TrEMBL record:
SUPFAM superfamilies: Bet v1-like. CDD domains: SRPBCC_4 (cd07822). InterPro entries: Polyketide_cyclase/dehydratase (IPR019587), START-like_dom_sf (IPR023393). This is Uncharacterized protein. It comes from Fusarium ambrosium.
């Protein structure tokens, strides 16, 4: 029987979802505002806004490199899916929602649904209430950059 485990990290950003998404999709500027993450379209001629379902991307997170497939790329969500066959499959979401706490702001949620043999066998040891520190660091850096861009415009 297959099991799915979900992990998420959420942050409130005092910038519109449009601004937050623009910063997020500015892959070529990542090194200017955060360290450790690099995302690139596999097709170097394609811009991040042009990525669609089925397109491949190259992702490096603190030295871990993988080549997931884009599932969605719309104003509300950017999603990719990657796997190690028979071991684990992960669907990673970045959502940009209007904030209910801060009018004009964004609730940014980064989450992942994990499934596969590894999760079925060892899922009870995965801490779903404690997202990866690297996710939190990325979210904080995204917040800082989006708010900086909002205040300078």
């Amino acid at each position: 029987m297959s099991r799915t485990i979900s992990v998420k990290a959420q942050i409130e950003i005092l910038a519109s979802p449009t601004v937050v998404r623009s910063v997020f999709l500015g892959f070529d500027r990542y090194q200017q505002w955060q360290q450790g993450w690099d995302i690139r379209p596999a097709d170097s001629g394609k811009k991040p806004l042009e990525l669609k379902s089925g397109d491949k991307i190259r992702v490096s997170m603190h030295g871990m490199v993988f080549n997931p497939e884009v599932i969605t790329n719309d104003p509300e969500c950017f999603t990719w899916e990657g796997s190690i066959p028979w071991i684990v499959k992960g669907r990673h979401y970045f959502s940009f929602s209007p904030s209910k706490e801060n009018p004009g702001g964004t609730t940014f949620i980064q989450s992942e649904d994990y499934s596969g043999g590894f999760v079925t066998l060892f899922g009870s040891w995965i801490k779903t209430d404690q997202p990866n520190q690297n996710w939190n660091a990325f979210n904080e850096a995204l917040k800082k950059e989006a708010e900086r861009r909002t205040s300078s415009s």
